[in-house]
Amino acid sequence: MEKFAFILHPLVVDDFARKFPILRYVPDSFIEGAMKHVGPIKVSHITGVKSPYATAEGWFIACPLTARQMLTLPEEYVTDKIIEAGKLAQDLGAKIVGLGAFTSIVGDAGITIAKNLDIAVTSGNSYTVATALQGTEEAIKCLGRDIAEANVTIVGATGSIGAACAKMLARKVKHMTLVARHKTPLEELAQELDRQVRCGVSVSSDITASLKDADVVITVTSAVDCLIEPGDLKAGAVVCDVARPRNVSKVVSSSRKDVLVIEGGVIKVPGDVDFGFNFGFPPRTSYACMAETMLLALEGRYENFTLGRNITIEQIKTISALADKHNFELAGFRNFERPVTAEEIAVVRQVWTQKLVMGHA
């Protein structure tokens, strides 16, 4: 039996109530203050992960800091809290631990954490990139279009996931706009892409302006607030929101029926899986970052895999091959904890087709 663990944390204070309902009645500031003094928590025992080649069990471990705390508290303090969670994973018998959500971006993106543990560590970001791109391309096909003709905007392009998405997509699309707060690293990435591919590449620190003509948007920033609102997107756009917390406002889905918004990296896990914890998905489904940890365990690859700020194309191809081998696959399109229906996709496709006929697309 292979063994793994995955570190998660509450994105916002309200998430504590999923595990401890009584906390719904306690002020947010009190909860955040109290949780700074709480150690890591074993949330659940994961059973039933089974591929044609191996079986695995694991544990969800909570690092009790919100996303806001991960970004605002001293880096050393937050890193130490994540290391504590990793040591609990060790004590439970895990041989590899995955870093979920903001635990994968603190400090040097997992490198220091791995140095302080006796087990392997991965952020899961390689499989996150692979599945985000796979889902985006499938969504474009569902709308009857070809990604080769798309104008693509990547929001958060200088982060590890954003940069990897840019490198993978630059070989396939017509034009790409890279968006981030700081121009210098954006321009460096654009120059790197210019040397390798022929697609047009531009850079911007203005999110709203960069979305105006985007056929495809991949957004993956570490912002704690929504960045994309209903008026920012063109009709017929496909938006893949990889960020947690989400970069796309929930109002987009309710008010823009001519835009297709999907979550990045939602995976169907093989076996009779019981996660022992409700994180808003149907049975047997997980985030891609969780799935990468399971994949490495099933393969017996107890080694540091995706760490630091640089995700290589080779890593993405390797984890994709392992997913195919062990029967991991996309779990369909989802948006804000619900499936995207065929009817919704049909509406977006109809609007796009009408505009194309009228010459407005």
**Shape, principal axes of CA atoms:** globular
Tell me, rounded to a whole number, the average pLDDT: 89
Work out the number of β strands. Answer: 14
Based on helices, strands and strand pairing, what is the structural class? alpha/beta
Percent helix among the residues?
25-40%
* Count of individual domains: 2
Taken in chain order, the helices and strands follow as EHHEEHHEHEHEHEHEHEEHEEEHHEH
Distance between the termini: 54 Å
Unreliable residue runs: none
Oligomer: single chain
Q: Strand order within the widest sheet? A: 8-7-6-9-10-11
Radius of gyration: 20 Å
Count of helical regions: 13
Q: In what range is the share of β-strand residues?
A: 15-25%
The largest sheet is: 6 strands, parallel
Explain what the structure shows.
This protein is α/β, with parallel strands linked by helices. The chain folds into two domains: 2-126 and 267-330, no CATH class; 129-265 and 334-358, NAD(P)-binding Rossmann-like Domain (Rossmann fold), CATH 3.40.50. The protein is built from 13 helices and 14 strands. The chain has helices at 16-19, 28-35, 67-72, 75-92, 111-115, 125-142, 160-169, 183-196, 207-211, 250-255, 288-298, 313-325, 342-358; strands at 2-8, 41-50, 55-62, 96-99, 120-122, 151-155, 175-179, 200-204, 216-219, 238-241, 260-263, 266-268, 285-287, 329-330. The strands form three sheets. It has a six-stranded parallel beta sheet. It has a five-stranded mixed beta sheet with strand order 2-3-1-4-5. A three-stranded antiparallel beta sheet has the order 13-12-14. β7, α8 (183-196) and β8 (200-204) form a beta-alpha-beta unit. α6 packs across α7 (160-169), α6 (125-142) packs across α11 and α6 packs across α12. The radius of gyration is 20 Å and the shape is globular.
